[in-house]
């Protein structure tokens, strides 16, 4: 459960993020990573990025999942980097305005996990 302990982080809504919003601390990142244990934080150009690679049986399924993530991103007005290849999709969340991680990134990672678990991309 999220730090609010009232609902899963995947049920949260992304809040508008300002350029002066604080980046998550290392402790906050570690705590939120427990919500999305399949995701990793990597440093890219000195910016922490939340990443996960998903596997699929073929390109069609990978593309279908990519489109679901795209719809989710557009609905929340928070957009990831997505790399779609045959049999896999890599999703990267971070907050461009603050050049780092915000709670929104973990909310979106959890929502992305839900999309994958729902397996709607198989239809």
SSE order and pairing:
Layout: H1 26-33, E1 40-44, E2 47-55, H2 59-76, E3 81-85, E4 88-93, H3 103-118
Antiparallel strand pairs: 1-2, 2-4, 3-4
Name of the top-level CATH class? Alpha Beta
User: Runs with pLDDT <50, length 5+?
Assistant: none
The CATH H-level homologous superfamily:
Transcriptional coactivator/pterin dehydratase
CATH architectural category: 2-Layer Sandwich
State mean pLDDT (0 to 100 scale). 92
Radius of gyration of CA atoms, rounded to a whole number: 14 Å
SSE order: HEEHEEH
CATH topology: Gyrase A, domain 2
Structural class: alpha+beta
The domain tally reads: 1
Helix content: 25-40%
Biggest sheet architecture: 4 strands, antiparallel
| Widest sheet, order of strands | 1-2-4-3
**How many strand segments?**
4
Give the N-terminus to C-terminus distance in angstroms. Answer: 30 Å
How would you characterize this protein structure?
It is a single chain. The chain has 123 residues and is an alpha+beta fold. The protein has a single domain (23-122), classed as Gyrase A, domain 2, CATH 3.30.1360.20. Helix content is 34%, strand content 20%. The protein has helices spanning 26-33, 59-76, 103-118; strands spanning 40-44, 47-55, 81-85, 88-93. Helix 2 (59-76) crosses helix 3 (103-118).
Summarize this structure as a short list of keywords or feature phrases:
single chain, 123 residues, alpha+beta, Gyrase A, domain 2, 4-stranded antiparallel sheet, 3 helices, 4 strands
């Amino acid at each position: 459960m999220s730090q609010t302990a009232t609902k899963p982080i995947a049920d949260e809504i992304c809040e508008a993020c300002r350029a002066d919003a604080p980046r998550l601390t290392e402790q906050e990142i570690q705590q939120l990573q427990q919500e999305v244990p399949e995701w990793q934080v990597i440093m890219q150009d000195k910016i922490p990025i939340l990443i996960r690679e998903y596997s699929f049986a073929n390109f069609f399924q990978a593309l279908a999942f990519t489109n679901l993530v795209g719809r989710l991103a557009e609905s929340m007005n928070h957009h990831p980097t997505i790399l779609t290849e045959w049999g896999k999709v890599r999703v990267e969340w971070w907050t461009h305005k603050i050049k780092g991680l915000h709670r929104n990134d973990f909310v979106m990672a959890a929502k992305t996990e839900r999309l994958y678990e729902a397996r709607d991309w198989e239809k």
